[in-house]
Structure formats: C-alpha cells, structure tokens
Amino acid sequence: MPKTSSYDIQSKKQRKNQGELATPDQDAMDLQVMPLSRRNLDPENPDRSPENLPPLDHADLPPQTRLTQLNMLGSHDAGTYLFSKERAQGGFSLGKTWPGPFKCQSLDLVGQAEAGIHYFDLRVERDKSNIYRFFHGPSSTGGDALEEVKKLLRYATEDERNLYILKLHFKKRDARHFIRQLSAFEQRIIENNASGSENPLGGLTIDNTIGQNRNILLLVKNAEGSIMEGSLKRYFWDYDKNTNTKWANQASGSGTGSHILNFHGDRGVDRENKFNIIQTNMPMRANPISKDFDYFLSLMKLFSVKNLAADQKEQVANFVRHLVLRGVSPGIISIDYAGDDDRSDTRLYNQLVDDQNRKLTNANNV
Questions:
Q1: What pLDDT, in 10s, does the model give residues 188-244?
Q2: What secondary structure letter does DSSP report for 44?
Q3: 217, containing H or E segment
Q4: Are the CB atoms for 276 and 71 separated by under 8 Å?
Q5: Quick check: helix, strand or coil at residue 117?
Q6: Which residue from 52, 102, 319, 353 puts its CA 20 to 30 A from 20's CA?
Q7: Which residues sit opposite 205 in a β-bridge?
C-alpha cells in the first residue's frame, strides 16, 4: 500500500463533501496508516518542526479562554498501574493475579502527569478495611488510592500554570469521605456554586481559575445523593452533566476511529459548557497463537488491553487527526498506557493538543 503525504488522509469522495461524516467501512478503506514520526500536525506550516517548540502552558492562553476550549491529554483508568505485580499490595484480587485485561497504565499518576497528562480518569472504592482502592470492572487494585491521588494533587499545586482535571468515579457511598480527605487542597480547587444550582462550566476561564491560583477541577460520577445537595458540592461538578463523551467499546482500530469521527464530528453538541472527551481506548484482545509455545500457554499474557493499544494505536490516531482536519477541536484525548510510546501515541497526541492550543491562542487574540 503506498504511503500518503503528511496530510493526505482523505479520499477523493471525502474531499468532495467535507460535511459528510464517514462510515466505518469507508474510513477503514480510505485512511492509510503512515509512520507517526514522519508526520507534521500543522498543515499551514508543513516545514516547521513542532517538537522543537517549547510546550505551551494553559496560563499562556488569553485570559478569556474558557476551560472547555482547552485541549489536553488524558489517561483512561489512570489508577490501574497498581495492578502490576511490582506494585500490587494487599489481598487477593483477579486484577492483581491476571493484570492483562484490567491494567491500562504502566506509570503512576505523577509519572503520567510528567508525560503530559492533565485529565485523569480515576475509579475509586473503599474496601472493608476502609482503605481506598482503584478499581476497573469487577477487580480492585492494591495500594492506597487516596494517597496516590494526594501525590498527584501535590504535583498539580506545584505546576500552577496548568489545569488538572480529576474524574472521580465512585462505588457505593464513598464520595463524601474521600472528598473530605482532600481538604488540604481546598484553596487550589476550582469551586462550584455551593448555594444550589450548578454553575455552567462555560463560565470558567483562564482568568477566573488559573489566574486566581486555582488549577484543580474535580468531576464526580456515582456520588451519593446527599453529597450532591450538601456543602461539599462546591468542590466538584457532576461528570455526566458536564461532559460530551461516549466509548466505542470496539476491539478494532478502524471501528474505534470511525466512532470517534462520527460521534465527535457532531457540531450540534454543547461544546461551550461541557468538556469534550475523546476515548481512544479499546478493550482487551487475545493475541494470535505465538510461535513461542510457552508464551501461548501463559493466559495472563495472552489476553491483554495492551495488545490492541500497541498494534492499532496509529490507526486510531489517524482518525483523531482526521477529525482535527475537519476543524473540530479535540478537547480531551483520553489514552491507555500514557507515556509508553510502544503502546500509545503520547508524543503525537501531546504535539496535537499543543498545536490546537496555539491556534486557540491566535483565535482568542483576534
């Protein structure tokens, strides 16, 4: 298959009608994967080398820029690095014994932040010993999730020029106690309206958040009803009401990419008052039979999230680039294995969101 030029990823049919969204079959045929290292994400300046530009801090954007306009990289199931055998502590769980289907990250939360992550998808539950664990599906990790989150928040307070968003997805009635434990960071958390109705996210700008030394925003899912009406409500936003997102749930790069292109290509959604979150992650897949018979017999290695993440990451990235070429700002791009270039396109996505924020700077300065 011949390689495309750096931005030639659209078919003739698509060029004739930019308004039509692609079908999965059409995009699977039309998008050709090329080595990411040869790509330049800025079509207006094809000769420049984006990697040589210093990273753009969120505080560098115009003061009136809405937080919902920001482009950033996110990590899916950010706490699952604790499923690794090296980090697993505590009692038995399926994910610690068989980490492949459950583990989506290899770096700890601070390591992910150092790799450029600013949005963290964290699923938290409290066990019978009153210790918080991260969970993924039916299994929970070892370690102490609360302490891991505090380490991340301490990192965020030191990086005061950038926004950090934590999505806290709880089980049962754990939200109230967990959020109370974050009181040491109260002065850095972007507050909601404590008097009743929730403020729209569209009212938050660089000026009235980062400019006021508040750079941590909490999104909460599955919180108990009482906390949604109580005094702690001012510290977080309801995740479901304030995001535009949907997981493809397809063990296919082309299927996942086509879903991203169609769902996020809908220009009728509320992008002013909601965060747009592109979920690039794919479910686990079994590797084909290996020539190494010992490897084939090891089921813990056979079934793994990392298989698709490694094999089809470029294909999904091409669809995300295609979306951007259509003039759609990506918002938050959530990935598996952040910072691991063998299993994710962290470098490329970091470059993409930085380029999009630079364009946002120019647009908001007009």
A1: 999 986 444 566 888 999 999 999 999 999 999 998 877 877 788 899 999 999 999
A2: T
A3: strand 216-221
A4: no
A5: strand
A6: 353
A7: 66
Per-residue pLDDT tens over the stretch 301-325:
555 556 666 778 888 999 999 999 9
Q: Which of 166, 288, 179, 284 is nearest to 226 (CA)?
A: 179
Q: Given the DSSP bridges, would you call strands 117-126 and 72-75 parallel, antiparallel or unpaired? A: parallel
**Cα-atom radius of gyration of the chain, to the nearest Å?**
21
CB neighbour class for 45 (10 Å; exposed up to 12, middle 13-18, buried from 19): exposed
Residue 189's φ and ψ, nearest 5 degrees, are: -80, 135
Domains (range + CATH), the chain: 66-363 (3.20.20.190)
The pairs formed by 145-150 with CB atoms below 8 angstroms and a separation of 24 or more are 145/79, 145/82, 146/178, 146/181, 148/79, 148/82, 148/108, 148/109, 149/109, 149/122, 149/124, 149/182, 150/181, 150/182, 150/184
